[in-house]
Structure formats: C-alpha cells, structure tokens
# Entry
Amino acid sequence: MRKIISFMHISLDGFVAGPSGEMNWIKVDQEIFDHVGKRISEGDTALYGRVTYDMMESYWPTAADQPGASKHDIEHSKWYKDVHKIVVSKSMQGKDLPNTTIISDNLAERLNTIKQSGGSKEILLFGSPTATHALIQQGLIDGYWLFVNPIVLGQGIPLFTDIKDKIKLNLVDTKQFTSGVTALNYTVEK
# Structure
C-alpha cells in the first residue's frame, strides 16, 4: 500500500508558517533542493491543499521557461508538470483539471482508495497546513519529512494542533545542512 508522507518546513517551536501565513523565515538553498529533488523524483503523486496548490500552479508550470531559471526551477518544473496532483478542497469541487484529482468529501475513503492503487510507494504531501491537519485528524499520514529551521517564531500556524491521540514516530534518518536546517525523517507507528 502506498504511504502519505508530509514534507514540511517547521520552526524549532513547531510552526509551519507565521501568524499571517508568512514563510519568509524558511531557509532553502541548492544543497536542500538537491537533497529533496532526489527523494521526490521517485514520487509520481503530489498532494496539496487548495491554497498551496494555487501557489504551486501559479509558478511551477512555467518556471523552467523563465530567463535565468535555476537548476532547481528547471528540474522541479518538469517534475511538477509530470506528477499526478491530488488537491483537497471543497471550493474546487467539480473542477476538471488535467492530471489532477480533486477531493472535496469522504477524505479518508478517497485517500485510502488512492493509497491502494498503483503508482510509486509514496504520495507526497507538500506544505498545506490545513490539509495536513485534516489528514492528521483521520490518521492518514504515514510519515513526516520535517525540515527544522533554526528559528523560534513564538506564534503562527502549528504543524500539530487538536491532536486527539498520541502519534508515535520512529526516526528513520537525519541530515544536517550547512544552512543550519536539519531534516528529520519519521515514520508513523501504526
């Protein structure tokens, strides 16, 4: 069965964005892009909430075509165009988008069906705090790949909120980047 893995930048105190959704505190560089690129290149399905999907859709389809496009922009743009996208959104219900599945209701049932279908081993959930919260509540996330940024925000949008039951995690590996960011790769103990 396929697994849903949440990819998320997080502050040391557990926030994925500032109070107004700001993410200008996130450190990214070519070292991190290369590391992430290796992992996601094996995936064929990306999962987003509507806000993150809209942000991705406004940039990645044409990022490689821009003058001075970086190596990361070229590689990720190609991946983004090819990957099947799943969007969790009530407001997009009924939209018919190429290479995209919209889930507006029956989240657990629909995602469990997709998890049992063919494709790569992982469905990659990028950012999308609201969608992530919904998946956490229903026990649908199988792993977390957290990029802990060396900053304490003090307030913002937390990764874990309204947790009803403990979530036990097993640390698979870690990687320290020269920027001070540390990647923590966990599987969820089921």
